[in-house]
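User: Could you write out the 3D structure of this protein bound to EPZ? I've included everything you need below.
Assistant: Certainly. Input first, then the structure.
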Amino acid sequence: MIAVEGGHGLRGELTVQGAKNSVLPILAAAILCRDVSVIENCPRLEDVDASAAILRHLGCRVRWVGEDLEVDSSGLSRWDIPDGLMRRMRSSVIFLGAILARCGRAALSYPGGCELGPRPIDLHLTALRTLGAHIEERGGQLRCRGERLRGTEIVLSLPSVGATENAMLAACGADGVTVISNAAREPEIMDLQAFLRKMGASVRGAGTSTVIVEGGRPLHGCRHRCIGDRIAAATYLSAVAATGGEITLRGVDYRYLSTVTTALSQAGCRISSDEQHIRLRSTGRLRGVCPIRTSPHPGFPTDAQAVFMAALLRSQGTTVFVENIFQNRYRHVAELQRMGANIRLEGRVAVVCGVERLCGATVRCTDLRGGAALVLAGLQADGVTQVEEIHHIKRGYSDLTGDLARLGAKIQEIEA
Ligand code: EPZ
């Protein structure tokens, strides 16, 4: 449980952790070769531990060397992921394309749903079938064969991040050229491309809607420093925006969260950024902004919706949010309402009317970013807020409590 006392401004400097949504597909990519790869700037997260457990199950050796994670996939001997490991992390389906490319077959169970609503993988399966994989779905199990994947054109019906990544990884093991159209454009996909190119793969176009892979290249291990986590950065910027104060962030490319910094500026924060830093100053009294509509990159990231909402709970004015990516990504709203937030929900629309004061309460995390939003609400509430079920937060933040404490928050983790 996290206990946080509201009413304290925040100030200081912070180096942002490595990007969770970069590291997870890169850990899957590491099995494409029989070699050792090192991922620098790897964040210590529950989801990274879950990925390491899958890699070890497959026969890889995984170990921390300081802040770097070393993966030796030369001993990979299995191609199945048991149900328990699949359910531990929703995005474990990202291993499917890589296992298929390496082993020619794969067996795994359907990934569990998650707090954000159903997490279908139809686009992943269609992409792999287009490359020639035979996938049988029965009883929650997926049995896949694909000894000879063939490069071709894959057209994604929507720019799914995970499906784009699965297609890229499988295409590395296919003969010939694969063109992925309507690909997701997230920075984490550009980071995956950078890792694959260091392995010797021929991948280009990441960051645009068309990614091209020339498969069948001999691949080798590499050393790669993953990019900073833009959503963690958005979380810390939103925290200081809400409490008032000043923060300088290092280790994240400001261009990757420009829609969030633009919204924070509209809310009244003063923001400056250069190649190395993002600096934000806030009086703590924000104003409502134009409607926030989440959309695929380079639009406003769905992962920043909850934390930006938390920053506006005491703003002057009203802000409309439209969550266009996930069906059920407002579960933090009911918990925020317990603290006195004035939010009205209508399906995908949330209308946030700023209130003068929030009241500390005992609240419960519902998902990773919703949990972070509850902590941000606690930073600006009267009295103490107790945030429970914080394992959700640990999936994506290496040390949210410690980082906020170092910025001056009165916050601590208490063993429940
Ligand atoms: C990735 O999830 C991220 N996770 C999510 O971050 C992020 O919210 C999401 O992309 C959107 O940016 C990782 O990268 C590990 P999608 P992913 O496929 O790949 C639907 C966090 O908080 N869809 O782009 O699962 C899907 O239901 C996490 O860090 C299908 O219908 O997202 C959703 O509505 C949460 N069929 C939409 O597409 C499919 O086969 C976007 O999903 C796949 C997706």
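Residues 20-21, 24, 91, 119-124, 158, 160-163, 184, 302-303, 325-326, 368-369, 396 surround EPZ (CB under 6 Å).
User: Perfect, thank you.
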